Amino acid sequence: MTQAQAHGKIWLTQDAFDKLTQELEDLKGPVRQEIIARISAARDEGDLKENGGYHAAREEQGKLEGRIRQLEDMLLRAEVGETPADDGVVEPGMKVTYKFVGDSDDDVETFLLGAREMEDAAGGLKVYSPQSPLGSAILGSSKGDTVTYEAPNGKELQVVIVDAVPFQG
Q1: Helix axis angle, 14-26 to 52-77, nearest 10°
Q2: Residue 4: per-residue pLDDT
Q3: Who's near 143: CB < 8 A, 6+ residues apart?
Q4: How confident is the model at residue 6 (pLDDT cuts 50, 70, 90)?
Q5: N or C: which end of the chain has fewer CB within 10 A?
Q6: In angstroms, rounded to a whole number, what is the distance separating the alpha carbons of residues 121 and 117?
């Protein structure tokens, strides 16, 4: 996790925040208890070196604890449901339409700038994190701006911000 991710705010709708809170409660309660019970039962079987059930349960426990830490961090940093101003400035919570420089005016793409956990609420709209290469490059830019960013493959790309409006989810 980068420093920016560790301290940055995450924009979530109230619905997404509630779903993540419920998932965290389930993971910390019944799901955690079930894994602990499976580890205990497998441990009672004896030799742990050759006990596949024990190792699988321990691995699952590690993944569970990682997800719990991720959710706790995310919910701690969440900015819930505050719709950004409709001023054309790109910030988390905005539905952004862009096109690549040189593409036709018809060839535009639209996404929600926010936490990936917003995908359910976004209704089929792609969701890009403000920490993603494109998301971090366009943060703070305005409608009509041309922005250059480095794609994950190392290639430099230029996009024009066609529109930026508050997401109504």
Answers
A1: 150
A2: 37
A3: 88, 161, 162, 163, 164
A4: very low
A5: N
A6: 8
Nearest to 94 by CA among 127, 137, 133, 121: 127
> E strands along 13-145, which residues?
78-80, 94-100, 109-113, 126-128
pLDDT of residue 2: 35
Alpha-carbon gap, residue 96 to 73, rounded angstroms: 26
pLDDT digits (tens, 9 = 90+) for 53-71: 888 999 999 999 999 998 9
Can you list the domains of the chain with their CATH numbers?
3-80 (1.10.287.180), 94-166 (3.10.50.30)
Would you state the pLDDT for residue 103?
Answer: 73
**DSSP label at residue 19:** H
Q: What is the DSSP string of 115-128?
A: -GGGTTTTTT-EEE
- Can you say how many angstroms the Cα of residue 119 is from the centroid of all Cα atoms in its chain? 8
Please tell me the pTM assigned to this model: 0.63
- CA 58 remoteness from chain centre: 26
Q: Are 169 and 123 in contact (CB under 8 A)?
A: yes
Q: What are phi and psi of 71, to 5 degrees?
A: -65, -45
